[in-house]
Amino acid sequence: MKIKVAALTMFLTLISSFPALAAHDPTRLFVLQTPVTLNGVEVPEGAYEFTVDSAKSNVQVTLRKQGKVVATAPGKLVKTGVTYKTNLVLLNVNPDGSRSVHEIRLAGSEKAIMLDSADTVAQLNTK
After folding, report:
1. Of 73, 85, 89, 74, residue with least CA distance to 34
2. How many CB atoms are located within 10 Å of the residue 10 CB?
3. Could you tell me where the DSSP H helices lie in the chain?
4. 3-state SS assignment for residue 30
5. Are 123 and 93 in contact (CB under 8 A)?
6. Distance of CA 68 to the CA centre of its chain
7. How far apart, in Å, do the first and last CA atoms of the chain sit?
8. Integer Cα distance of 90 and 77 in angstroms
9. Which of 31, 37, 33, 32 minimizes the C-alpha distance to 96?
10. Within 13 A of 63's CA, how many CA atoms are on the CB side?
11. Fewer CB near the last or first residue (10 Å), C or N of the chain?
12. Does residue 15 lie in a domain region?
């Protein structure tokens, strides 16, 4: 019995000494001024709640409108060395003229989220 209690205590101490495996950034306002595609989902222009869940450099981006999930996408968090004053989203301009999200730059941070690669990129300001 004493061995079980000691083992359990050691296990709980060990687990609590590690930082959380996943982190949830605060919700940000994300305003799209044109319709875009995020991970295959058509997202109309408008204001969205934007959250990022991360586990080291792997992230999951979520857009919500009125509390409902509109789109999610996996990505990589990268350090850019430039502090961004506003949230920015870089878009791929597809051959048919539609736009898909390529990169998201986070205001007040030197970090960006890379969602996919592209040859043609247009910049769209968000608030």
Report:
1. 89
2. 10
3. 2-17
4. strand
5. no
6. 16
7. 59
8. 15
9. 37
10. 21
11. N
12. no
Distance CA 8, CA 5 (A): 5
Q: What total of structural domains would you count in the chain?
A: 1
pTM: 0.69
The tens digit of pLDDT for each residue in 89-109 reads: 899 898 988 999 999 998 898
Give the helix/strand (H/E) hosting 42: strand 41-43
Assigned domain for 107 exists:
yes
Q: Which domain, by its residues, includes 76?
A: 21-125
Structure tokens at 72: 């999610």
What is the length of the chain? 127
Whether the pLDDT of residue 73 is over 80: the answer is yes
- Which residues neighbour 7 within 8 Å (Cβ) at sequence distance 6 or greater? none
